Each structure stands twice: as C-alpha cells, then as structure tokens.
C-alpha cells in the first residue's frame, strides 16, 4: 500500500477504519512470506502451511470445534522436517506482524501531528499542559530538569530470544515498510517490493537460534546495537524537543530561551556488571563492557566530527570567527593552505585527531579514517564538549546560529549525555557472597574467626569498627579462595574503570537479597579494602560507589523502610549521603516478590514499601531515588511504563527514577528509532507529570484514599493465601509446573549467559523469577499475572453478603477502579494478561503431566480461579470484553491467536516426543536434534507473538 498516510492524515472520514493500513501491511508481509516459503521450500510445503493457517483462523474466528480437531490432526501427522518449516513460518509471521504494528503506531502518531490534534497523552506537551493548568510555572519545570535523573537501564536476561542477525534483517524490513508511506513512482514501488522480498528471504535463510551458549560479550554487543539504532541520536534529539516544548507551552509567559545544560536522561546497563547468579561475569567482563561502550560512542563521535568537517565550510573571507575558534583552529595538526580561511574545518580536524588519540588511549581504537596528524587525547568528555561549544559560540556570534543545528548541537548534547563511557555500568552481587568474602578476610586477618555466626547487632558493631580502622584486612602475602580473589578483583576493576572512563562509568553497587543493615555495611568495607572508600586527614569518608539495597521478596519489602531508617541514621552513612547531595537510591524487585506472593500482593507490598520509604526519607531529610526492577511480563512489573509511573504513590518519583528494561522488551521498545523515541518521551513525560502534579489537598479525597488502601490490604491478604496455597502448599504442584510448562526446554536454550535456576534443584524457591514467568507465558496461562485476584475479590464480597453490604462493597471496588490510578493500572495490566491467557491451549500443556490425578486436580484449580478472576474483573470494571478500553491492542492480540495456536500445539507435540524418548534407555543418545530445534523455534515464535512474556 503506497502513500497511505498522505491520503488520510489530514482528513479522516467518519466511520473510517483507522487500522486498514495495518491490515494491509500485515497482508502484504504475510503474502511475501508465503512467496518466499513457496520459493524456498516448494509448493507442497507451502500448501501445508497455508492449510494449517486457514484452519487455525477458522477455529479462532468462528469458534469451530471441528476446526480444532482438524488442526490437531494435521499437526500430529507432520514429518519432522515439515514441523520445523511450519514452526519457522508461523514464528516469522509473528515477527513480521510486530514490525507492521510498530509502523502503524508511527503512522497514527504522524497522522495526529499532521492534523494538528491536541497533544497525545504521554507526550511532553501534554504533560506540560496539565502542569500549566495546575498552576506549575516555567521556572519550576526548568528546575525539575536541572535536578532530575531519569535512567532506563538495559539488562540481559534469559528471555531475549532474538539474535542480532535477525534484528538487523527486521530493521531493514521496517525501514522498507516505512518507505512505502512516501509517494513512490511505479519503478520505486516495484524496487521497494523487491527489496522487501529480498529481506524476508534473507530472514528465512538466517539461522534463528544460537547453537552455542550466549556469552556476556554477545549480550553486550546485542545491547550496543540499540544504541546505534536508537539511543545515540534519539536521546540528544529528545533534549531538543523538551526545550522547544517548554518554550512553546509557556510562550508569552516568559520569553527567556530554554536551555537545560544538565544530563537528566542518561542510560544505564547491567550487562557485564551483574554478577548475581552469573559466574560468567567478573572483572574482565566489566573491563570488556566499558571498552566496547567507549568504542561505540567514540566511533559515533568520530563519524559526526568527520561529517561536520564537510558541513561547516564557513570561510573567514565571508564572515569572521571568534578568537577562541581561531585559537582552536591554529592548534589543529592541519595547517593546509587550502583550508587557511576555513577555521571550523581546521578546528574539527583537530577535534577528530584528539578523539582518535582518545580512542587509542581508552583501548577503543577502531578508527576507519586516519587523522591528519597527532594530537593529545582529551582528558575527559567535558573537554571535548568545551571544544564543541567554541564552535557553537563562534557560529552564533557571526550569523551562523542556524548552522549549529542539528548536527553540531546534537553532537555536543551527546557528549554531555554519553561522555566517553556511553552508559553507567551497575555492579550487582548477592549479599550472601559478600558475607562469605568478609568472613574469610576477617578470619585470615585475625579480626574474627567466625563472622557469619554473629548476630546482626554484633555484625554491625564489627563492620563499623572496621570502617573506622586505618589498616586493611587484605594482605598480598596471604592466599585466599578463588571467590574472594574474584570479588576483590571486581572492586579493583571498578576503581580502574572510573579512573579511565570517568566517574559516571561505574557509580552504583546493588546488593541483591538485602535483608539487614549489615548487608549494606559489608559492601562499604569491601570498598575500603580496594581503595573505593577513603578517609581524609580529618577522618571524613568518601565512597566512590553508592551502595543500593535491593528489596525483593515480600518479607524484604516489609523490612525495607526499617532497614533504611537504621542505616541512614549511622554517622558514617549520613556523611556519605551528604557528600552525594543528600540523595540515596533504593531498588525494588518486582519479579521475586511476585513469585513469592503473587501478582496482587506483590503489587500492594511494593506500594506500601514505597509509602513507608517516603516517610523515612522525609524524616531523614534525604531525597529518595527509586530503582524499579521491572520485567517484561505484568507478573514481573511489566506493562506500560507511562501508566506505571503515574500510578506510583505521591512523593516516590520527585524527578528521580531508574528502571530496568529487560529481555525481548528492549527489542520491542527500541529496535525502531521512532518507536524508541516515543518510549523515551513517555518515560520523561510520566516522570515530569508524576513529580510536579499537585498533591491531594481535598480532605475528602484523602479520606477516600485511606478507605481504598484499607480495602486493598484486605484483598492482598486473601490473594496471598490463595496464591501461596497453590504454588507452595499444594502437594505435587512443583511436579505439575515442571511437566506442564516448557521450563526444562527453556533452561537448555542458548538465550542468555545466566543459568535459569540459582541452584541445581527442582524447587520453585530456587528458580529464577524470569524463567518462571516466561514458562507460564509459553503455555498461555500467564498465571503470575492474575492468580489469586478472583479468590480475593469473591471472598471479600462474600463477607459483605454476610454483613448485608455486598452491593456497597462492589460499589467501593468500582470507585477504586474509577478514582485510584494505582488500582486502575493494576486492573488494566491484569486485563491485558487475561486477554492473552487461553485455557484451551493451556489444557494441551496439562496433558504433558503423566499423573492424571495430579493433572486434573491442579488444572481444575487453575481453571476455577481463572473464571473467578474474569467474573470479578468484569463486575468491577463493567467491561465484558477484554481490553475494551484499548481496541487496537485487543484486535492485535485476537489476530495473533490464529498464528500462535499452531505454534503452541506443535510445541506440545514436540515436547511429548522428546520427553518420551528421553524416558527410554539410552533415549538421550538417540534424540533427534530436529525435535530439539523445533521446540526452541516454537519458544521463539510464541515469545515474539505475545511480545511481553519475559
């Protein structure tokens, strides 16, 4: 379809199908995939795939029971080679549908802009308009951006199922699809169609799976691809947009230009620094991560400096330049007579030479264009930025301000945001590892023979005494365990990295499983042992790394405020916080709290922990920054970021927020530059709105909120009991889970450098929350995103029956949905999960459980809770259809089911074959690798189709 936006963008007719272009794109990509399938695999195979597709569509759209049996029969008689082809075909269709949907989002956004519609919800302009209406003035907004820190943090987790080669091919398809929005001549349209077919054929001939285990280095490279696609250009561009939007919104009120010279939106990463449960991460991976970060950003700077040299052909024969620019040009190694009157070019040749020297000094020497001559490396990114400012100032002083934008000002902004480190690398390790290392250091130094045996008060006393000592526990003349040497090596590497790449390269240390104050003090001692914590002549301490507790389980969340109150009262810690500008970060874990207590209770306990932390920090006079450890699934804190931030309790954002972007969500959000830009804007707009929106001042509203919270506490208790009873107290549930989901097969996939379980056991407690949620998504139950809600609501309403107030209680829940963003977001996220849940498909996975009694008993309980949950959600919201408030998403999910169903059916069939053979004597040695491959391909396809399952 050619020029679809231009035909409708400025004037849409009543009743027009706004999704028609999306349908057309999906049909086009599906037809091209069919053409490629026919060409590559033959007419017979194409006919098989097409028959399966049509039958699946008929079953979904017409609820044809006969079609279901027919589909099942067709899939069972496929040969192994046919099975692989069918799985690949439906998997790639899911990937192509994702591309089409992303393009449609861009199309719809452009249509709104072309029509001059009012700013859409989630834009900076919309947030500013709301704040202005609420009486927030321009200076307050500018102060916000001058103090804020908003940081998406990319992490690598074992649900990222796409290879970079696949992502590259899909990016090319997205670009070609976008090209069709422009007016094309017949020849151009034919060429575009040809290239689409070429790229889809490339995708078909590209291996979808990795046959070797993904390394940390691979994960680093995968993440860096998103910088090249999106972040390097879109982050600086967003800064420009924010300044323009503030000036536009407050036009006439304050004519002063807007310039925010602080990097409030920054990137973070865990990849290469997150050691928790990953033995493959160490000092070497940290050094490698920063070297690759530096290479990526310096490549960008070098390319942009070279391009600017071509752009800025300004001659002093035409216009003068400033003395500072002349001095910069005269210092350049380029003294060619041909460019004697072109100071900008000569200055940029000098800047390029200094960047090249910097790249070599930082071990990032990947320089394609040799510099003209030698120049000294930059001492830091600030010096590079200052040189660029000399060019900007000279242009603006000599009628060349227009020439500074966009490339020069964008490059300068990039230097301020990304430095020479690109992204701040967080360090993370589990508290029990720190305890073991300290125990050995104390014992070998003769300070205490058995540190772990001490109670908490004694540990804190010993640690504080050690932090007051001028000497170290570690001795280079004593042998230590490999673990201790490795952990100390990591801290030493952090010190070297900060010296080499700048202080922002590494500045945070996160402690998993924080349960006590001593867990925090232990990391301060380890910093002291490695030169990261130092004291001046007056005894004042300085710590290079902020120590950040991660509260994960339900009990940990309940203890969080008390731990922070106690630790922030310690004189040493108070001094360290004061040196950082009275700010302290706390990380909250969504995944483990959900696995521990279920969706409703996890969400509520996180909310309560945040409120309690706000009170503790306010009393201590410390600004709190929350780091939200969100995953892809709703069960792991996923769902729309904008709504999630706005639903935070008042006082928990305040311009300070970090949040993780994990697994395939990174690809979903940032593999397209325009989609990535929109997601970054949503994050900034939500933080702005949540931080500056006036608090509730109406006593009636406060009283209403108190009542809402009381009800939520009761619901949480009931949901917790229902969830715990099923997952942790029901005999045989663990066996059911390992049999009825592809968890074992997921653990074998080469989709992450981290093991799926912390220990080699079959205990739910030891299983990582990520594969736990991923497995439930694959079998289409998505249980962590809704289980317990129905029991909680029904039980609470039933108590109302006994008291004669059921209708009043239901009205209270309806009021909570209508007037409380926290509860409304909770219901909205659960609604999305339930829309993707399919009990009929899940029942096929249940058949994998050999014990019939166990299968029927557990599946019946899950089914009963599912139906209860649906009924209760409908009673509270009044919506009898899923996603009634988001029809585009509802149609998207429904349209995908017809293509997901065959993948799920085939996955079950292949798992049956594989497990049956494995149960036979010498079965593993006779296993067909095609079956193994087919299972993993189906996992990829289902994940792509559901999009947020990790």
TrEMBL record:
Composition bias, Polar residues: 1-11
Gene Ontology MF annotations: magnesium ion binding; phosphoenolpyruvate carboxylase activity
InterPro entries recorded: PEP_COase, PEP_COase_bac/pln-type, PEP_COase_Lys_AS, PEPCASE_His_AS, Pyrv/PenolPyrv_kinase-like_dom
TM ranges: none
Residues the record marks as active site: 157, 595
GO biological process, one term: oxaloacetate metabolic process
GO cellular component: cytosol
Highest taxon listed in the record's lineage: Bacteria
E.C. number: 4.1.1.31
Reactions catalysed, as given in the entry: oxaloacetate + phosphate = phosphoenolpyruvate + hydrogencarbonate
Enzyme class: lyase
Region annotation Disordered: where it falls in the sequence: 1-20
Cofactors (names): Mg(2+)
Pfam family, one: PEPcase
Alphabetically ordered keywords of this record: Carbon dioxide fixation, Lyase, Magnesium, Pyruvate
PANTHER family xref list: PHOSPHOENOLPYRUVATE CARBOXYLASE
Role: Forms oxaloacetate, a four-carbon dicarboxylic acid source for the tricarboxylic acid cycle.
Assembly behavior: Homotetramer.
NCBIfam families assigned to the protein according to its UniProt record, in alphabetical order: PRK00009.1
Similarity comment: Belongs to the PEPCase type 1 family.
Protein name: Phosphoenolpyruvate carboxylase
Organism listed in the record: Pseudoduganella lurida
